[in-house]
Amino acid sequence: MSGSINKVMLIGNLGNDPEVRNFPNGGKVCNFNVATSERWKDRNTGEQRERTEWHRIAIFNENLVRLAEQYLKKGSKVFVEGKLETRKWQDNSGQEKFTTEVVLRPYNGELTFLDRREGYENSSDAPARVQNSQSQGTHTPDSNTSTHSQFDDASDFSNDIDDEIPF
Questions:
Q1: What DSSP element (H or E) covers 158?
Q2: Shortest CA distance to 129 belongs to which of 143, 148, 150?
Q3: Which helix (H) or strand (E) holds 71?
Q4: How far is CA 142 from CA 73, 157, 161, in A?
Q5: What pLDDT was estimated at residue 1?
Q6: For 109-128, what is each residue's pLDDT tens digit?
Q7: Which has the closest alpha carbon to 102: 52, 60, 130?
Q8: CA 44 distance to own-chain centroid
Q9: Which residue, 8, 12, 135, 142, is most buried by CB atoms nearer than 10 A?
Q10: Cα dihedral 102, 104, 109, 114 sign
Q11: C-alpha span between 128 and 117 (Å, rounded)
Q12: Rounded to an integer, what distance in angstroms lies between the CA atom of residue 63 and that of residue 70?
């Protein structure tokens, strides 16, 4: 069906440490839960109310798996962009179960670390934003996390021009 979109964007906190599992073929998957909350004031009672939703995240990109395993922990704040997928599986008793997850596959998804990593003096030392892109397929640090822009000094920029041109 053309004209349809399957895209999920979440900002929330990890409810558990990332769990990494290896596949027999050598691939990896990283699973964790993200909590998103909304708060409002009840019109009738005036009390503050809160509702929390839990979202299951599955990362199949090995670069993102490695970074999530290394830098994320329970309570970390993240931005996740992926797509919703439902899979069917059988439990130990043979009963069919269904799980719906936000999935980040190679070349399709984004993971942004929103917390500052403890122990880093310069925020550019820790990757803040990692994404899948068809052209690169690797992580890219977010330029907004660096205190010094790569274009602040014109002499630095002129040195970059002499680099090899790929075409």
A1: helix 154-161
A2: 143
A3: helix 62-71
A4: 20, 18, 22
A5: 59
A6: 999 999 876 644 444 444 54
A7: 60
A8: 38
A9: 12
A10: positive
A11: 9
A12: 11
